[in-house]
Amino acid sequence: MGPLEGLMAVLDRPFVCGDLFDGVADTIFFVKDGAGRYVAVNQVLAQRTGFQSKEALVGLRADEVFPGELGLRIAAQDRLILENAHSLKGELELHLYPDGREGWCLTWKEPLFDRGRRVAGLVGLSRDVRGANAAPDETLALSHALRVAQDPSGRALKAGDLAKRAGLSAFQLDQRIRAMFGLSAGQYLMRLRIERASESLRRTGEPISQIALDCGYADQTAFTRQFRKVVGLSPGSYRRAKASPGR
């Protein structure tokens, strides 16, 4: 048992992050079980969804908490993560709340695994998008573009292609992505490709040359060069390291 596991084993309430995030007014935090039911949340989520307390959300699914299509979409998103061990990395979403308010946020979700490496739940957070100063229709266009970039069919897209998909100029796209992620549009797309490649290297036995093509690189050499620059290891070394015991 490692230091983290040892600490978690003796805590009265392991998911103390819910209390920690109570004081972060622009962030929703949550933990869900294998059926997509809330087991821990922060006070911000309770307030925004009209519940009197955090405890009132425990045992409910997203489609029982959020209104209409939003609740159904979040529940479907949870099922995808729970059934396929997928991660969600900074997805731009428009959240509608029961009191009629709406707001853009960036959402991250990660699967939680039991000791047998089976998905046992998920943990996530949604952070309000502030400072983008974009008109609603422009933000909606950016949301569409980011969804395209995060979809497998968009793996070979370049920043200019993404701007056209969003109906924005290259400058507008770059400024919006910088405001949200602190990265240029090109850096954001590169990060997505590296994250996808890393996941494939960890979870599949696909040849590295095929992973390179699937992630939008012209060839294995170009992929290896960028992967090594960003990660510090060649793709093959990274795969071997992640396959080693204790990793």
Structure overview:
The protein is α+β, with helices and mostly antiparallel strands and 247 residues long. It folds into two domains: 3-128, Beta-Lactamase (2-Layer Sandwich), CATH 3.30.450; 136-243, Homeodomain-like (Arc Repressor Mutant, subunit A, Orthogonal Bundle), CATH 1.10.10.60. It has helices at 3-10, 17-20, 43-48, 68-84, 136-150, 159-166, 170-181, 185-203, 208-214, 220-231, 235-243; strands at 27-33, 38-41, 88-96, 102-113, 119-128. A hairpin with a 4-residue loop joins strand 1 and strand 2 (38-41). Helix 6 crosses helix 7 (170-181) and helix 9 (208-214) packs across helix 10 (220-231). The longest helix is centred in the C-terminal third of the chain and has 19 residues, at 185-203. GO terms for molecular function: DNA-binding transcription factor activity; sequence-specific DNA binding. Keywords: DNA-binding, Transcription, Transcription regulation. Residues 143-241 form the HTH araC/xylS-type domain.
Task: Output the CATH topology of the largest domain.
Answer: Beta-Lactamase
CATH architecture of the largest domain: 2-Layer Sandwich
What structural class results from the helix and strand content?
alpha+beta
Integer count of domains: 2
Pfam families: HTH_18 (PF12833), PAS_4 (PF08448)
Protein name: Helix-turn-helix domain-containing protein
Keywords: DNA-binding, Transcription, Transcription regulation
InterPro entries: AraC_XylS_family_regulators (IPR050204), Homeodomain-like_sf (IPR009057), HTH_AraC (IPR018060), HTH_AraC-typ_CS (IPR018062), PAS (IPR000014), PAS-like_dom_sf (IPR035965), PAS_4 (IPR013656), Tscrpt_reg_AraC-type_HTH (IPR020449)
